[in-house]
Amino acid sequence: MTVKILLVTGDAAESLEVMYPYQRLREEGYEVVVAAPARKKLRFVVHDFEDGFDTYTEKPGYTWPADAAFEEVEPEQYAALVVPGGRAPEYLRGDAHLKRIVEHFFAAGKPVAQICHGPQITAAAGVLSGRRTAAYPALEPDVLAAGAQYQDGDAVVDGTLVSARAWPDHPGWMRAFIEVLRKEAPLS
C-alpha cells in the first residue's frame, strides 16, 4: 500500500527545506506529491547566513515541477503534510485552496511538519491557536499573534505537529517527524 505525503510550496521556497524532506521521506518509502498554486516549474531560492548581514541572504536555487495545483488536491488522499519555508509562505498563506488543505490535516489530526516561515501558512489557516511551534526566530511575534506558543528548538513536537526553525535543524526535525509518521501513517 502506498502512503502519500503532500508537500505544499511555491516559488521562492527555500531549496533545502523542500528538497531535504522530499528526498528523506521518499527514502523512507513514502510517496511525496508536490503541490503549488499551479502545475508549473517552481523556482526555489537559497537562504544563507553570511558575516556582516543582519538577516539571511537570498540567491537563486533549484527548479522543480509541481505535481498538482492546490485546487486539484483532495487532502483525504494524503496521510501527512509538509510545509516548507522560504519566502513562499508569505504569498501562499492567502490561498483559499491551501487553507482548505491545511484545515483538513489539523481537523483530522494527521501529521504535519512545518519549518522556518511555514507557520505563516498554518497561522493564516487559523489552526495554530493553543499549539506549540518552532519557526524562524523572526516569526515569534507572528506565532504569538496566532495564539500559539513559540518554542526555540530544532524538533518541537506538539501531538502530530512537528516544527523547526530553519534548514540547519533538518536532522532533528525529520527524525522527529518520521517517528510521528511511523505511529500515525505506517508504511505497512
Account of the 3D structure:
This protein is α/β, with parallel strands linked by helices and 188 residues long. It has helices at residues 15-28, 88-92, 96-107, 119-124, 140-145, 170-184; strands at 4-8, 31-36, 41-48, 57-65, 68-69, 80-83, 112-115, 132-133, 149-150, 156-158, 161-164. It has a single domain (4-184), classed as Rossmann fold, CATH 3.40.50.880. It contains 6 helices and 11 strands. 48% of the residues are buried.
What's the gist of this structure?
By secondary structure, this protein is of the alpha/beta class.
* Oligomeric description of these chains: single chain
N-to-C series of helices and strands: EHEEEEEHHEHEHEEEH
Q: What sort of overall outline do the alpha carbons produce when their principal axes are compared?
A: globular
Helix tally? 6
Strand content range: 25-35%
CATH level 3 topology = Rossmann fold
- Amount of helix: 25-40%
Mean pLDDT: 97
How many strands, what sense, and barrel or not for the largest sheet?
7 strands, mixed
How far do the termini sit from each other? 7 Å
Number of beta strands? 11
- As for the number of domains, it is 1
Gyration radius, in Å:
15 Å
Q: Indicate the CATH class.
A: Alpha Beta
Keywords: Hydrolase, Protease
Organism: Streptomyces sulfonofaciens
Domain DJ-1/PfpI: 4-179
GO molecular function, one term: peptidase activity
